[in-house]
Amino acid sequence: MEFAFLEMVSSEALVRESRKTADLLKTVEKDRPLGAQLVGCNPEVMADAAEMIEGMGFDLLDLNLGCPVPKITSPGAGSALLREPEKAKAIFNAVIKRIKKIPVTVKMRLGFEDGSGQEAAVVARHAEDAGFSAVAVHGRTRKQGYTGIADWGAIRLVKDAVKIPVWGNGDVFSGEAALKMLAITGCDGVMVGRGALGNPWIYQNILAAMNGNAVFTPMIEDLKKAALRHLELEETMEDPRSALLKSRRIACWYFKNQPGVHRLRDKLHRSMSFAELREHIIEFQSLPGEIAPAGLVVDS
Questions:
Q1: Which of 18, 138, 157, 251 has the most CB atoms at less than 10 Å from its CB?
Q2: Known catalytic residue: 67?
Q3: Catalytic one among 41, 67, 187, 252?
């Protein structure tokens, strides 16, 4: 089964009914099944926000104990909770008491600074005891951020610590990588984040690899078509200014490994309208004979 999560939202902002936070939770029926992800460190506020998420009709709720950025960890949220397993436990118990129908999961890193996986294993057991349905583990510490290489072997420690499903995450950029992660970790599934940026084919390529089939290698025209469709959706779903600013960055994802992308990136970043963005994408030409890299499943 495949499904996706929206980007994380602050539990504090959600309960305060922040307009910006509400916008982050916008979705359409075609997105289903779809999960929402909460970040925060106050058990009661997290429980209030969880109840709101369920009331919005999401299919699944995920709690974020993986975010490494200082503005999240400084107040004690995100991956900072790996240093406070009892506080994490209190949050888990508070949330699960308020959720009536949908599954609850948690995403975490191996540890705050300890990369052995011991911290994650303790927190994963608390999640299991609380009644959570699954755990996702990114194979890096908070200290590493997104540097270095994800330690898939350490994820195995968490997998062996609990009986609920465990999903592996980190450095999955191809179907082959997904298979290798599953073999090393023994995990029940793969979570992909950065590997999907500008590469929507990663999902079909992971499934192809799992089934022993050939993966799809997008050509330049495939990249253009997908990028233009992505921009069309952004323009439809966002307010004009936000959509344009986001789409400048999004368009660059699709061509990041193409020869000549530096010139294209400069044009995209200077674009003042969707018409300009589309024009630059349509006119872009890679070098003769060049193809895009083999498809990338999902990580964060």
A1: 138
A2: yes
A3: 67
How is the chain classified by DSSP, letter by letter?
A: ---EEPPPEEHHHHHTT-HHHHHHT---GGG-SEEEEEE-S-HHHHHHHHHHHHHTT-SEEEEEE----HHHHTTT-GGGGGG-HHHHHHHHHHHHHH--SS-EEEEEEEESS-TTSHHHHHHHHHHHHHT-SEEEEEEEETTTTT-S---HHHHHHHHHH-SS-EEEESS--SHHHHHHHHHHH--SEEE-SGGGTT-TTHHHHHHHHHTTPPPP---HHHHHHHHHHHHHHHHHHS-HHHHHHHHHHHHHHHTTTSTTHHHHHHHHHH--SHHHHHHHHHH--PPTT--PPSP-----
pLDDT interval class at 292 (50, 70, 90): very low
Residue 152: half-sphere exposure toward Cβ, Cα within 13 Å = 21
**Length of the chain counted residue by residue:** 300
Average pLDDT, stretch 219-231?
96
| pLDDT beyond 80 at 288 | no
What integer is the mean pLDDT of 66-90? Answer: 97
For the chain, what percent of residues have pLDDT higher than 90? 87
Say which residue, 288 or 257, is predicted with more confidence: 257
The domain ranges of the chain are 4-191, 198-300
Task: Record the tokens describing residue 1, joined without a space.
Answer: 């089964």
User: Model pTM?
Assistant: 0.90
CB 170 within 8 A of CB 177: no
Architecture category of domain 4-191 in CATH: Alpha-Beta Barrel (3.20)
